[in-house]
Amino acid sequence: MKETRRLERVVIRFAGDSGDGMQLTGDRFTSETASFGNDLSTLPNFPAEIRAPAGTLPGVSSFQLHFADHDILTPGDAPDVLVAMNPAALKANVGDLPQGAEVIVNTDEFTKRALQKVGYAGSPLDDGSLSGYRLHPVPLTTLTVEALKDFDLSRKDAERSKNMFALGLLSWMYHRPTEGTESFLRTKFAKKPRIAEANLAAFRAGWNFGETTEDFAVSYEVAPATSAFPTGTYRNISGNLALSYGLIAASRQADLPLYLGSYPITPASDILHELSKHKNFGVRTFQAEDEIAGIGAALGASFGGSLAVTTTSGPGVALKSETIGLAVSLELPLLIVDIQRGGPSTGLPTKTEQADLLQAMFGRNGEAPVPIVAPKTPADCFDAALDAARIALTYRTPVMLLSDGYLANGSEPWRVPEVDELPNLTVQFAQGPNHTLADGTEVYWPYKRDPETLARPWAIPGTPGLEHRIGGIEKQDGTGNISYDPANHEFMVRTRQAKIDGITVPDLEVDDPDGARVLVLGWGSTYGPITAAVRRLRAAGEPIAQAHLRHLNPFPKNLGEVLKRYDKVVVPEMNLGQLSLLLRARHLVDVRPVTQVNGMPFKAEHLAGVLEEALHGH
């Protein structure tokens, strides 16, 4: 019997060529880990090109998974295990490895030509450069082809299953369940049963190789994270999938059809793909010819009485800006989902960034205020979608939802909520006249406002007696007639701003168990790395407070008081300090920005060092 060691946590990174199936391999390992009951967090990382040149550094695709027997928040700072399918994968990732990490390499791909392609003069497997790691040279391709010799496949087709061999090996190493992957393969290749059986054979061969080879003397167990989760039904979910489900739930809770007008763009396209599958929930998806048509159609659907959504990334928001301004003027509910990515222009389509905050806040002509909501984890995208819908429907306004590539593609366990836990978003449409003229005539005024929310009534086109004019030119207060009157314009501009300023958002909650002097404040996807860094410092006896913003416009009403409570406020964000700029302007507090724009999320170790410096520096 081989030795089995118990671990609290492990970080695994699968890396290979874009055609090696690393995202599928990582996804399958993640699904089995979720079904086993571990807490987990993932970081897919892949090129923007549809197919970068094979064997090159730009063509490397990787998938990192952190799983544990306790509550975790990030995909891990550094891999404990690297599976490298070729020299390019090794070279691109070896710099992230700590000493003593396990490295599993596919020796079949370490040919002279493949080594030269990425700048290796000789093989790193032989020159001692990997002596600081536990190296496992495995001829993955040869073993896979041998395992499939009875399947009447060409060598090229057989080689494609080497990712399943690697998955089987890693599944053995970490005692992962196998039933889910076997079922998945049979379903995925239901129309090609021979391919399904070949992949299953490769998967089982990888498992058996781990069981029998002398090179892997130890396997590892990471127990389920039974104490990390409240009781409930859980599933693994990515941010984009959670957001899609949140939009569907919002439409059901509002009893409105859901309409998505969208144009495909990385990393937002998954939402379009997912929502298109759910016509049975009253979802209608429209893939438009461009970004402007997508939001135009969505705004038209809102006018017609739908819960309307448009999804995009930063470049698409720029194109949609005039229509967002039109939605501000029309005062109709509309959700603009921005899955942020590296910019400017088309920038880094598959890398993450938080650099659209100022665009969301100010990126329109004229005074055109828009509420902004930002989820903090992949699972939180579900709640953020419901929250954004609540604001849009209650206050009759477009709302920006700022997710990013890290949240969109990353995944974690999510507790499926009970229906009675969801908010009631029911909308009351205008039914008849709402204003009486001086002569006693009853009329419908489209811009007569609710005294509490300042929202205007929402009248469905075709409702008798509620005909009204809409358009982008300034409206007269109440009647909605075209008006160029200076005093009216001033009033309407200030009223639209007051409506946004008056939106009800919860007070900012501060986690400060020790009466700290330093506060670390974040927004969006920095939550995981910040919280992991704060835990490290507190475990070392350092007092530090933490707070995280869900609502960025309007800010929580107690934000100014919270900021002034601390000697230092540190704000980590994946841009050049956009939230810091807003906080300084609004609250006259000299916050300290910690910025990073390398297309990757913060590492907890790096943030812990920065925060420790803030605690003890001047």
Automatic annotation (TrEMBL):
<feature type="domain" description="Pyruvate:ferredoxin oxidoreductase core">
    <location>
        <begin position="516"/>
        <end position="586"/>
    </location>
</feature>
<dbReference type="GO" id="GO:0006979">
    <property type="term" value="P:response to oxidative stress"/>
</dbReference>
<feature type="domain" description="Pyruvate/ketoisovalerate oxidoreductase catalytic">
    <location>
        <begin position="19"/>
        <end position="206"/>
    </location>
</feature>
<dbReference type="Pfam" id="PF01558">
    <property type="entry name" value="POR"/>
</dbReference>
<dbReference type="InterPro" id="IPR002869">
    <property type="entry name" value="Pyrv_flavodox_OxRed_cen"/>
</dbReference>
<dbReference type="InterPro" id="IPR022367">
    <property type="entry name" value="2-oxoacid/accept_OxRdtase_asu"/>
</dbReference>
<dbReference type="GO" id="GO:0016903">
    <property type="term" value="F:oxidoreductase activity, acting on the aldehyde or oxo group of donors"/>
</dbReference>
<dbReference type="InterPro" id="IPR029061">
    <property type="entry name" value="THDP-binding"/>
</dbReference>
<dbReference type="Pfam" id="PF17147">
    <property type="entry name" value="PFOR_II"/>
</dbReference>
<dbReference type="Pfam" id="PF01855">
    <property type="entry name" value="POR_N"/>
</dbReference>
<dbReference type="InterPro" id="IPR033412">
    <property type="entry name" value="PFOR_II"/>
</dbReference>
<dbReference type="InterPro" id="IPR009014">
    <property type="entry name" value="Transketo_C/PFOR_II"/>
</dbReference>
<dbReference type="InterPro" id="IPR019752">
    <property type="entry name" value="Pyrv/ketoisovalerate_OxRed_cat"/>
</dbReference>
<dbReference type="InterPro" id="IPR050722">
    <property type="entry name" value="Pyruvate:ferred/Flavod_OxRd"/>
</dbReference>
<dbReference type="GO" id="GO:0000287">
    <property type="term" value="F:magnesium ion binding"/>
</dbReference>
<keyword id="KW-0560">Oxidoreductase</keyword>
<dbReference type="InterPro" id="IPR002880">
    <property type="entry name" value="Pyrv_Fd/Flavodoxin_OxRdtase_N"/>
</dbReference>
<feature type="domain" description="Pyruvate flavodoxin/ferredoxin oxidoreductase pyrimidine binding">
    <location>
        <begin position="261"/>
        <end position="475"/>
    </location>
</feature>
<protein>
    <submittedName>
        <fullName>Oxidoreductase</fullName>
    </submittedName>
</protein>
